[in-house]
User: Fold Transposon Ty3-I Gag-Pol polyprotein from Gossypium australe.
Amino acid sequence: MSTDAMWVVVDKLAKSTHFNPMKINYSREKLVELYISKIVRLHDPRFTSRFWGKLQETLGTKLNFTTTFHPQTDKQPE
Assistant:
């Protein structure tokens, strides 16, 4: 895949910079996919958990989590 632009993400808290090659005409959806695949996955599970929680709150989505060992959870969608 050829690219013609660079998306630079500066993480001031971690004092790091991420350089992501991209195409200038990427859609917002593609940028979200790139952000999640290249930036979010680099962090530890606590950050990822807080990130997803805040994202869902911002989107107005209510999440209900179940635990793996809960007797009512059979690993199948309800």
